[in-house]
């Protein structure tokens, strides 16, 4: 424990020193990604109608960004922890993304909005679930999660009683960074704030109503990274009763294996994939078999404790996977099987 605390202190000190040097006037760096400020529709903490679904966009203090911490080292990221914001130019801080170049904090990593969506038929007095949705790369909440992927509509049509919650990750960027979800305890903090925000949106319900709701994590594409760290060290793994990966297994295999081994008696795991993540899913399945975990092929009729299922969607298009994969409206299909 002493060694761990010392390591954390050293890492924090390194981040502080890095910011000091960056802000001192570093005017040269790697290739800069030119990125326009996204057009954001009117957002607020109160529900509005979006195609028959109640949606709101409150700001969270515990959302993924802004984040001025470190990128932790692990099996997929060997070496020493390093500052997330590692570029400075003309007073601006940025992050050098391996695939997207440099993205600036004030444009890409500064949006605290969180999409909250629920059916008008949501019953706060009945058993419910909180579904946390981690979107993929090059996405915004309104344009992509709501309009393009139709996640709120699919959620409402599934019949699952509950609330869909989607934090804005890197804004419209080719970047899977987890932000605050890299921090130990971040999922617990996020859920605690979500419970409070939902109680404000539903005056007839206390905060405790939402605190008692179990959680289902859904990740699409690059959303695998915050999902993996949320499961591994988010501080609320015991509250998670299901994990759904939608063509999202691009790394952190060890974290998913560890969670499945620990939670399979009380939770379910589903991973659906196209050719894009086929090999990673096969590797995960082999690791689970080696650990004595029984898996199945295809989508079961009902999703509950003990189910570990893999769905090969063949030639499905990765970019449209949330809309059409092994079936149309795959998010609705999965959550309908949870609701039964």
Descriptive notes:
- The chain is 31% helix and 20% strand.
- It is built from ten helices and 15 strands.
- The longest helix has 22 residues, at 2-23.
- It is globular, with a radius of gyration of 20 Å.
The description of the largest β-sheet is: 10 strands, mixed
Using only C-alpha atoms, the radius of gyration works out to 20 Å
Roughly what fraction of the amino acids lie in strands? 15-25%
- Strands of the widest sheet, in order across it, are 1-2-8-10-9-11-12-13-15-14
Percent of residues in helical segments?
25-40%
DSSP summary: helix tally: 10
Question: Would you count the extended β strands for me?
Answer: 15
Average pLDDT works out at: 89
Secondary-structure-based class equals alpha/beta
Instruction: Quote the distance from N terminus to C terminus.
Output: 44 Å
Oligomer: single chain
Low-pLDDT regions: 1-42
Overall form: globular
Q: Layout of SSEs?
A:
Blueprint: H1 2-23, E1 48-50, E2 53-56, E3 70-71, E4 82-83, E5 87-89, E6 92-97, E7 101-104, H2 105-108, E8 114-118, E9 129-134, H3 141-148, H4 151-157, E10 162-167, H5 186-201, H6 207-211, E11 215-220, H7 224-233, E12 240-246, H8 253-263, E13 268-273, H9 278-290, E14 296-297, E15 308-312, H10 330-339
Parallel strand pairs: 9-10, 9-11, 11-12, 12-13, 13-15, 14-15
Antiparallel strand pairs: 1-2, 2-8, 3-4, 5-6, 6-7, 8-10
């Amino acid at each position: 424990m002493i060694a761990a605390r010392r390591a954390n202190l050293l890492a924090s000190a390194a981040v502080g020193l890095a910011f000091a040097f960056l802000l001192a006037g570093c005017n040269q760096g790697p290739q800069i990604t030119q990125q326009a400020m996204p057009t954001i529709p009117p957002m607020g903490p109160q529900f509005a109608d979006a195609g028959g679904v109640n949606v709101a966009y409150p700001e969270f203090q515990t959302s993924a960004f802004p984040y001025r911490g470190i990128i932790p080292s692990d099996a997929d990221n060997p070496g020493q922890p390093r500052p997330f914001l590692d570029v400075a130019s003309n007073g601006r801080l940025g992050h050098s993304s391996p695939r997207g170049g440099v993205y600036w904090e004030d444009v890409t990593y500064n949006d605290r909005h969180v999409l909250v969506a629920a059916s008008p038929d949501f019953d706060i007095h009945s058993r419910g679930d909180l579904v946390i949705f981690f979107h993929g790369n090059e996405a915004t909440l309104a344009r992509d999660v709501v309009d393009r992927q139709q996640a709120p509509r699919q959620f409402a049509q599934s019949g699952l009683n509950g609330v869909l919650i989607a934090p804005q990750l890197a804004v419209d960027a080719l970047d899977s960074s987890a932000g605050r979800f890299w921090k130990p305890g971040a999922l617990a903090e996020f859920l605690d704030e979500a419970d409070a925000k939902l109680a404000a949106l539903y005056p007839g319900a206390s905060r405790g109503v939402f605190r008692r709701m179990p959680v289902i994590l859904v990740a699409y594409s690059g959303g695998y990274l915050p999902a993996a760290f949320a499961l591994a060290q988010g501080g609320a793994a015991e509250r998670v009763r299901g994990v759904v990966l939608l063509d999202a297994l691009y790394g952190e295999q060890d974290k998913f294996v560890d969670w499945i081994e620990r939670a399979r008696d009380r939770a379910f795991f589903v991973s659906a994939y196209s050719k894009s993540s086929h090999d990673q899913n096969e590797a995960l399945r082999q690791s689970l078999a080696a650990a004595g975990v029984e898996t199945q092929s295809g989508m079961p009729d009902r999703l509950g404790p003990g189910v570990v299922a893999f769905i090969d969607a063949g030639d499905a298009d990765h970019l449209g996977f949330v809309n059409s994969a092994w079936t149309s409206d795959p998010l609705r299909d999965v959550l309908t099987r949870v609701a039964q």
